[in-house]
Amino acid sequence: MTKMKFTHGIRPANPSTLMKSPFNLIGHRLVFAGALLLAAVSAWAQAPAAAPAAATPPAAAPVAPPTQEERLTALEAYVTNGDPVKGPLVGNAGPGHNAWMMTSSALVLFMTLPGLALFYGGLVRKKNVLSVLAQCLGIAGLVTILWWAFGYSLVFGKSFNSPYLGGSEYFFLKGVTSAPNTDYAYWVSQNVFSMYQMMFAIITPALIVGAIAERMKFTAIMAFVALWMFVIYFPLAHMVWGSSGLMNGVWNGDAAIKAIDFAGGTVVHMSSGWTALLLCIILGPRLGFGKDKMAPHSMVLCMVGTGMLWVGWYGFNAGSAVAADGVAANAFMTTTLAAAVAAFVWGLIEKVLRGHASILGFCSGAVAGLVVITPAAGFVDSTGAVIIGVVAAVIPYIFVTKVKAAFGYDDALDTFGVHAVGGTLGALVTGFLATDAVNGNLSLIADATKANPATKNGLAALVAHGGLWVEQAKAIGITLVLSLVGTIVLAYLVKATIGLRPTPEVESQGLDINDHGEEGYID
Amino acid sequence: MKLILAIIKPFKLEEVKEALAEVGIEGMTVTEVKGFGRQKGHTEIYRGSEYTVDFLPKVKIEIAVSDDMAGKAVLAIVKAAKTGKIGDGKVFVVPLGDVIRIRTDERGESAV
Q1: Of B44, B46, B48, which has the smallest distance from its Cβ to A405's Cβ?
Q2: With 50 as the cut, is the pLDDT of residue A86 above it?
Q3: Which comes out higher in pLDDT, residue A146 or A55?
Q4: Residue numbers of B between 65 and 104 with CB closer than 8 Å to A
Q5: Distance, in angstroms, between B47 CA and closest chain A CA?
Q6: What pTM, to 2 d.p., does this model score?
Q7: CB atoms B46 and A401 under 8 Å
Q8: Which long-range contacts (C-beta less than 8 Å, at least 24 apart) are formed by B55-58?
Q9: Minimum CA–CA partner of B53 in chain A
């Protein structure tokens, strides 16, 4: 996720370029629409009479009110998502950016509840539909508590001054108020930012559920996820998105690995997908796997869930600009193109190779397209997005149909084939397709005094001259090692303590009635 | 007396019912059933997983008739249910020991 301070290469407005005004305006509540005020700027010189505001500050004012120039600079910074510097708007959220981020937060939650829950729920057998819904709901609650207590701080704090983990200053969301945390966003309230990021922390472990569906104890899943957040997610999210993160090429001028990940190709999809593969192997296949019919019980629910995922993904990707700015707009477009192209191409491949374009094929393609565009959304242009849509259909198709069958692991709902493969693919192709034409944060800036972090750490040069894919490959490697090693340790830990699987009797009868005491469908 | 059991394609039920009514059959019992014969089932593919569905949905019609009606009824069923393609179904005709109309206690031919 890039925390956009400057978009499209627009630097914060330089005060010297702004019109000088002899007038001081009273008032410290700047709630004018930014555009309106900017329009007024051009009219100013022609109509000085239109600004009859008193030149003298109120007698009671303890400090000098901001000058006209300072106020305009601050509003320009709001409109361009720039730095309010020390102007009168410091400490205020920008309403437009804040509104979009609250909307995006709700959209990302909508991806899990009910999007992913229905997508997965439709794909399992009737007797296990509720178990999937319960796992998604349980994870939403559990991760929220962890995030409030420790998670946000461990990812986005900085008191540890470490490339691997954040800090302790925001434990229990202490000090997380409506004022922006300008390490990440100039114009978005930190409480909104923390909730937005929490929605990512919720959906990531929920994705794992797909691989181990229909055969893991509810308590074991909750225990595994709780540990997994601390061992894998929090450190990884800090490394990729934290302001002092090891692999945060866009934002950390001292990043050792100059990689980019716009909305979570590594953090979300690779981490959950590779974990899912190992966990489903350690867990073993479902009883009767390869013999019994395990067809989806409702393709209708699956399609409904897919549509919700797609809609929610606009919050996931376009929201990852952490502003309602030009980068968000570009991510909105690329997300749409990649998803639609991948859905269509997957259906086309099925039609040609098998004779039927299936609903599950269209759904798989759409999700795969969304996964692969995720790390690239704010860094590639429309052509890049269409290329990504095509590869997102072809490569995951091969994995879920051929590779899975060849190796025989029971990745029940294809979390590995879609999310791990898609996330890895996305991280890599971002290394080839990223361009500073759509994202000024990647621009090479010659003037050393104005250099952005990407220029300082060398990322901008890699984008301009090629070679970014090597950094992306390093980030992929670290994500892989952390996910795989962490998962092996945690899975065996949970297996040794509370056990991973229900009894065969429970499993064949179904998890719904046994783990949750309910049935999805009463005849 | 004969009991006629006919297993037919579900979409042919309406035509068979009308054909039987035309030859004077006044009642029948219909059940949705599953099974397979030479047609076998079909395969469904979900991503990489292929499942063979052995049992296909069919409709079973049961009618009790007098001996002289049996031939006409069977002909009506076969004619109406035929598509000429595999999976059209089968008709079984079995002798019927007795029939009782519960309301009136009638037995035999008059109860059919």
Answers
A1: B48
A2: yes
A3: A146
A4: none
A5: 6
A6: 0.84
A7: no
A8: B56/B87, B57/B10, B57/B32, B57/B33, B58/B7, B58/B8, B58/B9, B58/B10, B58/B32, B58/B33, B58/B34, B58/B89
A9: A293
Asked if residue A5 belongs to a domain, the reply is no
What is the rounded average pLDDT of the residues A29-39? 40
Residues A312 and A344 in one domain: yes
What distance in Å separates residue B44's CA from the closest CA in chain A?
Answer: 8
Find residues 369-428 of chain A whose CB sits inside 8 Å of chain B: 400-402, 404-405, 414, 417
State whether CATH 3.30.70.120 applies to domain B2-111. Answer: yes
Q: Are B17 and B28 in contact (CB under 8 A)?
A: yes
How large is the ipTM? 0.71
Q: Report yes or no: B43 at the A interface, CB cutoff 8 Å.
A: no
A247-262 pLDDT, tens digit per residue, is: 999 999 999 999 999 9
Chain B CB contacts of A401 under 8 Å are 47-48
Q: Write the CB contacts of A465 (distance below 8 Å, at least 6 apart in sequence).
A: none
Q: Which of B46, B51, B52, B54 to mutate to test the interface with A (most CBs of A within 10 A)?
A: B46
Does residue A345 sit in the same domain as residue A452? yes
Pairing, β B49-53 against β B29-35: unpaired
Q: Which of A19-23, A88-92, A472-476 has the highest mean pLDDT?
A: A472-476
* pLDDT at A21 exceeding the cut of 70: no
Asked if A360's CB is within 8 angstroms of B44's CB, the reply is: no
Give the domain range for residue A74. 15-79
Q: What is the CA radius of gyration of chain A?
A: 25
